């Protein structure tokens, strides 16, 4: 049987690393397109309107619009001569103008919809990260997640180690309803909320603090300092979030749950639902030495299993973004 170790040897580093990557993508968000169509659409429509005007305007209308500079008319522009095929040509040009206007309207609507869809997807990433759809400051040195106005969003109602990290291996959902409420909450359970004697479950010299000072509301300054220290060992994402990267990281996260169950010296059947290391599966994620982890068992088992809230938000964001990308591709193919 494996011997329990002291939770001071980077036991939870691998789990933290994957959550770190997900955090950075949530902070970066998907690239939001402009709510207006490309300038080429307006340029195309204006050129067609100009051609139609030159073909149908009277001399007085031409001179009036030349003065007002409507449609970009210049003195070098000339009105279309009325030839024998003039009527047929005007009908064709009128049809072209009709379709051009319809295309411009569709492009404008599509751009607005795409922008709104991207914003909605990013709201879900924001909520997964910190429990609110609002985009909060991502300054690692001055984290706002632990301010009084944001604590409930970050940790849920009546936050505690039991409710957020899920305590004993036999805990039930009714007594521990905040686990998985946000990425931040789970990271604090995984790396910070532990014995106050300086353990380092997530490496980088970042030490644990008493859970009451990090999960509950006792000391925002302690939670802020701990988060800042953690983020110093969490590389920033240089680009926007992508569905490919998020999907890969979520798969790694799922495989990380229970990864260390074999190391538990007892009740491994409980530990298979833990994120991080616990020496005793029955004791669970109590924040005691060698029991610093996140227990998802009450969430994922029972008669009515629940989804991990932050994971569900990101999956929803991915689905919305993929739908947006698919619609964008269909639009491009239809133009071709």
UniProtKB/TrEMBL annotation:
<dbReference type="InterPro" id="IPR025932">
    <property type="entry name" value="Trypano_VSG_B_N_dom"/>
</dbReference>
<dbReference type="GO" id="GO:0098552">
    <property type="term" value="C:side of membrane"/>
</dbReference>
<keyword id="KW-0449">Lipoprotein</keyword>
<keyword id="KW-0732">Signal</keyword>
<keyword id="KW-1003">Cell membrane</keyword>
<keyword id="KW-0472">Membrane</keyword>
<dbReference type="GO" id="GO:0005886">
    <property type="term" value="C:plasma membrane"/>
</dbReference>
<feature type="domain" description="Trypanosome variant surface glycoprotein B-type N-terminal">
    <location>
        <begin position="81"/>
        <end position="330"/>
    </location>
</feature>
<keyword id="KW-0336">GPI-anchor</keyword>
<feature type="coiled-coil region">
    <location>
        <begin position="104"/>
        <end position="135"/>
    </location>
</feature>
<dbReference type="Pfam" id="PF13206">
    <property type="entry name" value="VSG_B"/>
</dbReference>
<protein>
    <submittedName>
        <fullName>Variant surface glycoprotein 1125.2775</fullName>
    </submittedName>
</protein>
<keyword id="KW-0325">Glycoprotein</keyword>
<comment type="function">
    <text>VSG forms a coat on the surface of the parasite. The trypanosome evades the immune response of the host by expressing a series of antigenically distinct VSGs from an estimated 1000 VSG genes.</text>
</comment>
<keyword id="KW-0175">Coiled coil</keyword>
């Amino acid at each position: 049987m494996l011997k329990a170790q002291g939770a001071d040897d980077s036991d939870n580093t691998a789990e933290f690393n994957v959550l770190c990557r997900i955090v950075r993508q949530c902070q970066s968000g998907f690239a939001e397109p402009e709510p207006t169509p490309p300038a080429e659409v307006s340029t195309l429509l204006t050129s067609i309107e100009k051609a139609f005007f030159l073909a149908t305007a009277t001399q007085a209308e031409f001179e009036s619009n030349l003065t007002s500079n409507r449609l970009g008319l210049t003195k070098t522009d000339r009105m279309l001569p009325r030839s024998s095929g003039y009527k047929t040509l005007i009908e064709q040009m009128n049809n072209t103008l009709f379709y051009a206007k319809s295309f411009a309207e569709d492009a404008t609507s599509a751009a607005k919809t795409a922008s709104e869809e991207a914003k909605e997807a990013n709201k879900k990433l924001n909520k997964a990260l910190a429990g609110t759809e609002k985009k909060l400051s991502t300054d690692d040195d001055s984290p706002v997640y632990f301010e009084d106005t944001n604590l409930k969003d970050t940790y849920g109602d009546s936050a505690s180690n039991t409710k957020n990290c899920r305590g004993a291996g036999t805990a039930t959902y009714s007594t521990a309803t905040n686990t998985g409420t946000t990425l931040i909450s789970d990271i604090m359970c995984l790396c910070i909320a532990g014995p106050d004697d300086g353990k380092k479950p997530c490496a980088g010299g970042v030490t644990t603090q008493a859970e009451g000072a990090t999960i509950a509301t006792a000391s925002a300054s302690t939670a802020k300092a701990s988060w800042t220290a953690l983020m110093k060992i969490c590389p920033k994402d240089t680009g926007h979030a992508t569905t490919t990267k998020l999907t890969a990281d979520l798969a790694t996260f799922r495989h990380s749950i229970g990864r260390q169950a074999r190391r538990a010296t007892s009740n491994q059947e409980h530990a298979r639902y833990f994120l991080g290391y616990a020496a005793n599966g029955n004791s669970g994620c109590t924040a005691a030495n060698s029991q610093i982890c996140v227990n998802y068992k009450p969430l994922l088992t029972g008669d009515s299993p629940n989804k991990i809230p932050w994971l569900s938000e990101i999956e929803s964001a991915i689905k919305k973004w993929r739908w947006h990308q698919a619609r964008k591709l269909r639009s491009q193919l239809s133009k071709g």
